[in-house]
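Researcher: Can you fold this with KG4 in place?
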Amino acid sequence: MKILGIETSCDETAVCIIDCEGNPSDGNFKINILGDALHSQIDLHKEFGGVVPFMAKREHAKNLIPLFIQSLKQADLFKEYSEKNPLNEDAREKLNEIFGREIEFKNNFIEFIETTNKPHSIEAIAITEGPGLEPALWMGIIFSKALSLVYDLPLIPINHMEGHIMSVLPNLNNHKIKFPAISLLISGGHTELILMRDWHSYEIIGETRDDAVGEAFDKVARMLDLPYPGGPEISRLADLHRKTKTSTQEYILPRPMINSKDFNFSFSGIKTAVLYSLKNNHENKIPKEIVAKEFEEAVTEVLVTKTLKALEEYNAETLILGGGVVSNKYLRKEFKKEIKKISGVSLLIPENKLRTDNAVMIAISAYLRIISNKNNIKSNDSLVAKGRLRLG
Ligand code: KG4
Ligand code: ZN
């Protein structure tokens, strides 16, 4: 089954076409990524030290059609008409409603539709409905509604966090996921521990009370004058220090809530501790790489400790990691080391390019909902952006 996936929840515009068969519950799930086009806005937002919502929105509107064309071409599904094939008045009217004030986006869309062929083999459109930045989500939603209208295809709304969980499926290699499973989702906007007793059964058992892990990485990086996004930079400096050990200066950061009875997190305390230590050390400056290494280790220790507690508490047989912070090499190494020590728990980690935001995870989630009859197809009118959508 071929599915078109669209993701615009933050600063990545992504459009993909995947072809799936089988069922991960039966251990015979297969996915073929036919087209996968992504544009990251990191360079644009860099100078502002974080994502600027109205700019993210404008970029999504500009890039969605070119990325869709790129994805269609990769999938060998792109065909141009030899002459224009005008849309009827009824369709134009409905498109006016869908696009609202996004006139330029609408005109580009109409131009595209009137000059290209419908990709007939695509059977459904998967779209991120939330959580995320609402103006950004909205551009993907408008685009998917318009395509659903002109191509007459079902529109399947997907929770972005479910997408991050499902991003491990291409790596399953005919294994089945054993439940209960615990997912630790760590990104720039989220830090959540989720209990899954079965497919599509989600209970958030722990989350951050303040900053998300990725956000803390980004903020500490800013304090150290490192460029945005800070995660990869901190990780690079920390690795450098582990290899070269240029200084032996002692530096210890707190591990907030590591022994609390619940599964919640708090990262703003570590961040503030870094801030104070930098302020108090004007003369005798702590080298950046020491701060980076200790910060990475403090955060990892908290995440690993609490996740292991959750695995034990719920007798989980699977641990799924998802989200951009999983790109942190040290964190992955620590999780692998600790999970090896526990018998009967498998660790699933998405491949590199599926860790950060992407459309493939959204399309896979829709496929899984279709084959489980939990596809929750939405009509064009009822689909709206849900910035604070929660799993479960
Ligand atoms: O999942 P993602 O791409 O976007 C969100 O949905 O937020 O995650 C982005 C976050 C950023 O905060 C970035 O600093 C962090 O993931 N990140 C890392 C690393 N690579 C990306 N954090 C720590 N270490 C890394 N190597
Ligand atoms: Zn994400």
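Model: Folded with KG4 in place. Residues 339 and 345 are 7 Å apart (CA to CA).
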